[in-house]
Every structure is written in C-alpha cells, then in structure tokens.
Specification:
Order of helices and strands: HHHHHHEHEHHEHEHHHEHHEEH
Largest sheet: 5 strands, parallel
Shape: globular
Number of helices: 16
Structural class: alpha/beta
Helix content: 40-55%
Strand order of the largest sheet: 2-3-4-1-5
Radius of gyration: 23 Å
C-alpha cells in the first residue's frame, strides 16, 4: 500500500470509526506506540480528511436554527402549528448538551401536507449532507417490514440497526415512514432506546432524533379543520390543544396502525404529536410557485392557478381542501409549463 493511502486509512480508523474507543485493555501498549508513531500523520491529514469525508464531528453535524426557521417560513405552507412546534422542539433539543432522552416527534396528517418535507428540512438544518448524510436513516414500513409473519426477525434487525448506527454516531436521526402501515408491536422493540436511560449496554441514545410519519389521525385533524371552516373561523386560530388529545388517542387506538397500543405512547415517550392540516387552494398555489422557483423558473401565477385548479378537492360541493395536498405538484407543473 502506498504510504499516503496507508496514512489516510489509519487516520480514518482513528478519527471516524471509533476504533480507538473499542480497544481492549491488552492492546493499550500497542495503541500508545501507534499513537506516538502517527502524531505527525495526524497533524498532516486530520483537517484535510475531515473536510472531505463525512464524520460524526461538528464539521459535518451542526444545527443551524436560522436555516430551519427560514425554510419553514418560506417553503412550508398552511402549517402554522407544525412549523412552530418543529422549530421550538428541534432548537431546544439541539441546544441542550445533556438531554435526558432522545427527541421523539410523531408527524400526522393526510398525504401531501408536508410531513416528509419537514423531515428533510430538519435534516438539512443539522447535517451538512442533509438527507444524504450517512447519519440519517430512513425506514419505510412497506419496504423494510413487509411481512407480518417475520415480525420477530424485524424486531431483532431494527434493534441492531438502531444500536449499531447510534454506536457509530450519537447524533443519528431515524425517520420511520408509513407508520400507519407498520405491523402493530414492531416499533415497541426500540422503546428502551427512546426512554430515559443514560446508557444501554454502553451506548447512549440521548442525543439521537426519532421522527415518525403517519397518515393515522388524519381524519380527526381534517374534522377539526372542517369544523373551524364551517364556523367561519380562520384556520390560523386552530391551536395544538384543539388537536393533540384526540390525535394521540385516535393513533393509540387504531388497530391498523404501528402505534396501536404502543408503549411509546403509553409511557409518554413521544415528545410531540405534530398535526399537519389539510391544504387549501391558496396553499397549493404557493406550493406551485415555490416549485417553479426551485426549478429556477420565473414564477407564473397563472400557471400556478392552472396547477391548483387541476387537483381534486373535498368536500365536493365546497372544494375546500386538496385531497392530495401538494403531493402531485411536480408532475402537474411538468404538464402545465
């Protein structure tokens, strides 16, 4: 092996892989000798290596509150409750050097309302690589856990995946999509990692983030939004207290949901149930305008109107809320532009 390649490999082992922490006592003498021999190598390569290769270090993981707030304000539409909760929850957690437990967020609402998008915004505000970071892990129920008869295997695998990744980096993020399609009981396998433990088998999970995405509870959210609309009240008057209790109960008692009778809710380990309201016509127009801007197109309100008018709304007579939110905006914009 060429000297420079060999030196870079040794540096990676020391800086990023955590090998130094895993050395057995019997290896201490060897380790000390290695450290002395590699002092010059570390000085030459450390800064360069950290710049080019993602590591579990501040160079790659650093919370940017300004970015998160700006993105929520300018890119997320019609979600005043979710925007406020997410900003406060993530800011508070990332500002705490010694949290008592991981941050656990459960995002609920119909399709196309912004749940996945908000997960991306959170990742972008913490990790230099955003959703492409090696420390952001996404699980999709229908893809990773498709068969009910294999639930015992899935439980073991899920525990291993979470434990292994947090062992590698305590600032890991786990996103569980389609929780409403997850087999009941499976998510309870990671309950200990979300609880108030300093360490479990030598691993601390307290600085990790767990985000659950689900359509479950969407009906109760929509009903509340409809009640406010029928009463002639502004949707911005809806507060978390109008939704949170009914939302958590409907999710907990839904026997088709991955949260059915889960200990995560029963033991109050979910820090925030975040409701995503159904989107109105004006919000769909905003989504279309934002998508044009993201494509470096000149925003055209007429095109955005055409996109919004082409979507399906409910109730049928009033056409208040978009059935798919902003989910099909990209394909619709391709058609109308």
């Amino acid at each position: 092996m060429r000297p420079r390649k060999r030196d870079a490999l040794l540096l990676w082992l020391l800086v990023c892989s955590g090998v130094a922490e895993a050395l057995e006592p019997i290896s201490t003498t060897i380790a000390v000798g290695m450290a002395a021999a590699l002092t010059g190598i570390l000085a030459r390569y450390q800064n360069i290596f950290n710049y080019f290769h993602e590591c579990c270090r501040p160079e790659w993981i650093s919370f940017n509150r300004t970015r998160l707030k700006t993105d929520l304000d300018s890119k997320l539409f019609g979600q005043h409750i979710a925007s406020r909760i997410i900003l406060k929850a993530v800011t508070g957690f990332m500002s705490n050097d010694n949290p008592k437990k991981p941050l656990v967020l459960s995002l609920h609402g119909w399709t196309g309302t912004g749940k996945n998008f908000v997960s991306k915004l959170i990742a972008d505000s913490i990790y230099a690589e955003g959703m492409h970071s090696g420390f952001v892990h996404v699980f999709t129920s229908t893809l990773h856990f498709p068969h009910a008869e294999h639930i015992a295997t899935y439980k073991s695998q899920l525990q291993q995946w979470v434990r292994g990744n947090v062992s590698n980096c305590e600032r890991s993020m786990f996103i569980f999509d389609e929780m409403d399609k997850m087999h009941p009981g499976l998510i309870d396998s990671i309950k200990p990692y979300l609880d108030y433990y300093d360490k479990l088998d030598g691993v601390s999970y307290r600085k990790s983030i767990f985000i659950f995405l689900s359509n479950a509870g969407g009906d109760s959210i929509i009903q509340t939004a409809l009640d406010f609309w029928n009463a002639g009240r502004n949707r911005e008057e809806i507060e978390l207290k109008d939704l949170e209790t009914a939302l958590s109960l409907s999710v907990f008692n839904n026997n088709n949901s991955g949260f059915f009778r889960t200990s995560l809710i029963d033991k109050s380990l979910v820090d925030f149930f975040v409701p995503f309201l159904p989107l109105e016509y004006r919000h769909v127009v905003q989504c279309a305008m934002a998508e044009m801007k993201a494509r470096n197109m000149k925003p055209n309100h007429e095109t955005a109107d055409n996109v919004a008018r082409d979507l399906v709304y409910f109730p049928k007579s009033e056409r208040v809320f978009s059935v798919k939110g902003c989910k099909s905006i990209e394909s619709k914009l391709d058609f109308f532009s």
